[in-house]
Design brief:
This protein is α/β, with parallel strands linked by helices. The protein is built from 12 helices and 15 strands. Strand 7 (about 165-170), helix 6 and strand 8 form a beta-alpha-beta unit. Strands 6-7-8-3-9-10 form a 6-stranded mixed β-sheet, sandwiched between helices. A 5-stranded antiparallel β-sheet has the order 11-12-13-15-14. The structure holds adenosine-5'-diphosphate and magnesium ion. Adenosine-5'-diphosphate binds near residues 13, 22, 43 and 45. Magnesium ion (MG) binds next to helix 1.
């Protein structure tokens, strides 16, 4: 018997006379010890699914069994109890109470489940040890980094000894430099056999750690399979497009005084994640800087969306500059400040493509491979 069983679950929302099918007749089994990654575009129903799995919300129709007990008709109170006993939830934001210290934050849910003071303390300390924060018990959340705060949130779950932990984009709100410490903690839980489901954009992580990957689209599980099946050999069109596109870093630039150094730092992290050679990284940063210079004069008119995209499969690296409006190709416009930028871009690129389509202008520069 599966630990969690969803059968024909739908969730509809009504917004201004319109019906939104956030989940559309979805069925899913999660076995004890499984680690499931859920990927898919924004708005595809991932959070709705997690909320229903986590008893934070009830479906419009369909059935849910948790540990063999049907719960779709449970009252709010019953749901709260089930949640407290069986389910851990880690969100994008940590929801730690700022006035309590770390230990007290971890202890808090145990107060509602009626543990003794002694037991609460012991369990909190043990949980903090598991996430490597045993020495931070007396700190306030504000005194910790974002990554550490998220680890406290995970400890808060672990202390309750849940049967399953659900993560909804646990690293999306973190500074990129802190993503890996949180993922390492989750990785370790996976190794210890904890049953988990995670909504994530960290594809390399999902591929390494999960037993099963679900690709969601428009409220359904559009494709599912092993990480190899989904990432290396997706069968359906949308999965294929998504898997190839997601390895991207996007930054929106709408003013000339944006923080170039912060953006470069993020691009460096991106390169690190995809193990790009140093010379390629250098070319990339150079291209990005020159492309920004080219767009600088009329940034205020139309913000620039700059995407760095890497396809592991074809090993191609592209910088894409997108703006709303029918703009002339900035590489061809007369009156460039100088030719140097253009020369540099041409030098590091393998190909350059410019397109105006559906009211959007898109310049794609493919960075050439370099060893080193
Ligand atoms: N409380 C709500 N009221 C109305 N519509 C909602 C609500 N929550 C989610 N939706 C809609 O349901 C769809 C799925 O949302 P969500 O599960 O948050 O997607 P994801 O997590 O994949 O981005 C979206 O179209 C979203 O706008
Ligand atoms: Mg979501």
């Amino acid at each position: 018997m599966a630990l969690v069983e969803l059968r024909n679950v739908s969730k509809f929302y009504h917004l201004g006379g319109e019906q939104i099918r956030a989940l559309d007749d979805l069925s899913l089994d999660i076995d004890a010890g499984e680690f499931i990654s859920i990927i898919g575009p924004s708005g595809s129903g991932k959070s709705t699914l997690m909320h229903i799995l986590g008893c934070l919300d009830t479906p419009t129709c369909g059935t849910i069994r948790l540990d063999g007990t049907e719960i779709q008709h449970a009252s709010r109170r019953q749901l709260a109890r089930i949640r407290n006993e069986k389910i851990g939830f880690v969100f994008q934001f940590f929801n730690l109470l700022p006035k309590l210290n770390v230990i007290q934050n971890v202890e808090l849910p145990m107060i509602y489940s009626g543990c003794s003071t002694r037991e609460r303390r012991d369990r909190a300390v043990a949980a903090l040890q598991l996430v490597g924060l045993e020495n931070r018990g007396k700190h306030r959340p504000m005194q910790l980094s974002g990554g550490q705060q998220q680890r406290v949130a995970i400890a808060r779950c672990l202390a309750m000894d849940p049967e399953v932990i659900l993560f909804d984009e646990p690293t999306s709100a973190l500074d990129p430099t802190m993503v890996s410490e949180v993922l390492s903690v989750i990785r370790r839980l996976a190794r210890d056999g904890m049953t988990m489901a995670i909504v994530t954009h960290e594809m390399a992580f999902a591929r390494d750690v999960s037993n099963r990957v679900l690709y969601m689209d428009e409220g359904v599980i559009y494709e599912e399979g092993t990480p190899q099946e989904i990432f290396d050999n997706p069968q359906r069109e949308k999965t294929r497009t998504f898997v190839n596109r997601i390895r991207a870093y996007t930054c929106r630039i709408d003013s000339p005084d944006f923080d170039l150094y912060a953006m470069n730092a993020r691009i460096e992290v991106f390169c690190e994640r995809h193990i790009l050679p140093r010379a390629t990284r250098h070319s990339l940063l150079l291209a990005v800087e020159e492309l920004l210079n080219l767009h600088m004069p009329d940034l205020r008119g139309a913000p620039l969306e700059l995407t760095v995209e890497y396809s592991e499969k074809s090993e191609t690296l592209e910088v894409i500059c997108e703006r709303l409006g029918n703009w002339a190709n900035p590489l061809e416009t007369e009156g460039l400040p100088d030719d140097l930028g253009l020369t540099l871009i041409t030098h590091v690129s393998e190909s350059i493509d410019y397109q105006v389509e559906n009211g959007k202008s898109r310049l794609t520069v493919r960075i050439g491979k370099r060893q080193g």
